[in-house]
Amino acid sequence: MPAIKLAKQVEVPEGMILLSGPLEHDNIVNGDGLRAVLWTQGCPNHCLGCQNPETWDYNAGMLVSIDEIIERLSKFKGQTGLTFCGGEPFVQARACREISERVRKEFGWDVWSFSGFTYEMIKEFGGEPWEFLKSLDALIDGPFILKQRDLSLRFRGSKNQRLLKLEYGSGRILNIE
After folding, report:
1. Which of 27, 66, 72, 104 has the fewest CB atoms within 10 Å, counting from its CB?
2. Which pLDDT score is estimated for 4?
């Protein structure tokens, strides 16, 4: 069943991404350092207690060109990284990977992503989602589970979620928190 959900990618034209809201900057709660945050639109997981249910609809949001995203991000001074939040970034894997690679190359930022899918599901599914994962430095994985909610966890909302530090380019797990 998870592979079916992961296979349901948001359909956007080449060079575009569907966002649920404006880009953020100076964020300190979605990863290490001062970060820009990109909020993707579309999520098949529909976790009970999700803080962003307005991001679930695959037909809502704002269609934005990746070039415009990069232009906007270039104006954010003092950022050390970019974090993909959602929605579910892995259902727009191709666009997210392109943005990830460009901010690494053009700005020298590290890149993190949240996902309601586990690392193992993404690896098993392969394809564009796995290629996106390999472009990351960290992944916070697993669905939000309301019964396991824990506000004391760093960068996570429920005890089942993991903060995985990754080897860029291979996707190999270096550390699990």
Report:
1. 72
2. 73
User: Can you state the angle between helices 66-74 and 93-107, rounded to 10 degrees?
Assistant: 30
Total domains, the chain: 1
Residue 172: domain span = 2-44+51-176
Q: Which two tokens stand for residue 108?
A: 């020298």
Contacts of 4 (CB under 8 A, 6+ apart): none
Residue 12 pLDDT > 60, yes or no?
yes
pLDDT digits (tens, 9 = 90+) for 20-50: 999 999 999 999 999 999 999 999 999 998 9
pLDDT value of position 2: 63
Q: What is the DSSP string of the chain?
A: -HHHHHH------TTEEEESS--EEEE-SSSSSSEEEEEB---S---TT-S-GGG--TT-SEEEEHHHHHHHHHT-TT--EEEEESS-GGGGHHHHHHHHHHHHHHH--EEEEE-SS-HHHHHHH-HHHHHHHHT-SEEEES---GGGB-TTSTT-SBTT-EEEEE-TTT--EEEE-
